[in-house]
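S1.2 Input.
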Amino acid sequence: MNKRTVTIGPVFLVISASIVQALQASQKDYPHLPDATQLEVDMNLLNDQSGVPAVVADNEQNTHKLFLYTPSYSLELDEIDETKNGYRIKRIEPVNVQMYDRLAQGSLSLSATSWHLCTQEKEILASQSSHWQEVEKEWQLLQVQIEQMRKLAQPVLTHPLLPSHHEQYLDLAASLIELTQTLKHEENDILLSAQREAVVLLREGKAPNPYLLTALVDRHYQPYEAATVPPLLEKLSSEQEEIVQKGLSVPDLLLVHLASQSEEDKALAGLIQVCSTKKQHVLLAAATTQRLEGVLGQLPAQLLSLRLDQQADELSSDSTGPRPAKAWARQMRRQILEKTEAALPPLSRLVVSKKTIGQWIERLQRHVVTLSGEATEQHILFLRQRMSTIEQFISTPFQPALSELAATVQQVEEHLTHQKSRLESFNERQAATDKSRQKPALGRLFQSVDHLAQGWLKRQQATVESLQAEYDAKKQAYQQAQEAMLQAVREDAEYAWCQQRIQEIEAEYATAQAEATKAITILQDTLRELVPAQPPLEPINELTLQHYLNWYTVTRAILEQRYELLQEWRSQLSKYTEIVYPELLRYADVVSGTYADIVATKALTRIEYDLVIVEDAGGMVLPDLLPLLVRARRAVLVGDPKQATPFDQETIQTHPDAEETTTQLTRSVLAQLWSSSIDAAHTVRPIAPAQEEATPVEEEEVESNAPEKGHIDTSPLSAKEGKEQGEPAQIEEEVI
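S1.3 Output.
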């Protein structure tokens, strides 16, 4: 998919009350749609991952329109024309196939500093930006890039045709399916349907393993680099470690044949364990339950290991080892019912008190209107202006006298201040003179000066006292005149009415604030158990109350839907274990079962595994193996190539057919692959024992069969085929 990343600053989105209501209505049909508060969380989560996918719409009537996409819903945004500092949310819709197709054609990845959701445009600072120019520029560059790639692209077949020899192979497989049903003398509709479906998947190119037919038909295998095996709890032998290493990395098929069955089991358990650490899911198939237990019994307890068993009953409390999938689904159902039981009471109380809660919401809405009414503020402002006009009209006749008295008071105050300053200065000089004077040497002259100073001091004090009395009298007269003016204003009927009306409005505001606080406290209590972290309410004003009311309305609707869904889920879960069953199979570390159980489990047809391990594959013919191989992206076939198939030559001869049919039914797929040319990276075979360690019986066999003593044939070819191709004995010696 074509994509360009756009790094921008913070983005602000505005969601209106009408959009919130429309979102609540849509949630009835689409419960996966988010609530308003979840939008901001989703945007920031996507932003932290790889950016928010976005598509720029064609400009219609110069409208700057943007579409944002999440995994479950999309947002249609319009830039705020007036301020260009954010976007208005115009629509929220669930995603559909058309939206995914639109994203596939090319999209932007918006990596913003942060995403913010607002309920009003005035919450966005004017200094913020919508970053439209950067977004539009990158979008235009993306269109140029898409056009260039379109010109360079070559036409590709959506559904390429299979090579003719692959078609012939699948035709042969289809005929073998019908033939084996006849030879087995049984009617197994489930197996027959699974086998036919496997052929259809391969024919249509829909099998998870894209290299399966190439390996089965052409005997051509994909090259790969072997992965490094992390350390396991138990030490593995070189052969076992080779199985783990190759099984983890091989992109198509791995063929395994070890001399010891216990060695195979330990190696496969190690492979499953390593796949689990890589978050890969494994499907393990075997002919019998005992073979499954041999592998699953060596897995660590922390791995989720499920065993498909159509006969399994309830799982006991002390069950250990591989768990029967259906039985564990029943136990999981009980656990879910027990755990969700505790969530019901607070949700049910919310639903039962729906009517009462609605009444408190209505009260809060009325109080919010009172607190946020612009008309109320304008009314108070008008009343204050009218009072000011009345006060000015009444006080006009009093102004000349008040002005004269004010001037007189100011003049006397200035004179009094001056005289007090002279008196203080004289006292300071007199104190300094008395301190420095030596009275025995001064004589009568200084006594005369002291006498004169004392006389001036008394006169000055008398002047200050007289001015103080005059100032007090003038000031009192001014205050009385001013009080008379104010009394005249207060006695005016219109002025008194305006003042009383303002007091009533302010009292109504205080009452609304107190009642809103009470209502919001009650609403908080209804959600305290369900949503401990609620929006803050400080300070208590119209903005915080409206924000909380919007949040509560959305959250309450979600919780009510959650209650209905939980009730429905618990009801369905109480009746049908199958609801849990598919999810267990999808997310288990390893799902195991016999061939019959795997084929019979319909839930597996919708699940693709990373790896399928087929035990005892040495005895499986093509029709029985294909339903297992088409369930995973790669496969490991384990078994003995020399193992006999269920069909012998004599049985097949009773149904004359082509030689290829006989070969396919008398030799397993593993045997056919093993005998063909195959590189060492796609096989794990037992290490041949050293010559001196061979038993006498082995030595006799070597002497009788090999051209040179001590050479053991470990080639995938038979001895006859080896001679026909003229393989030298030195190859066998190198293998040793």
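S1.4 Remarks. Residues 691-735 form one domain.
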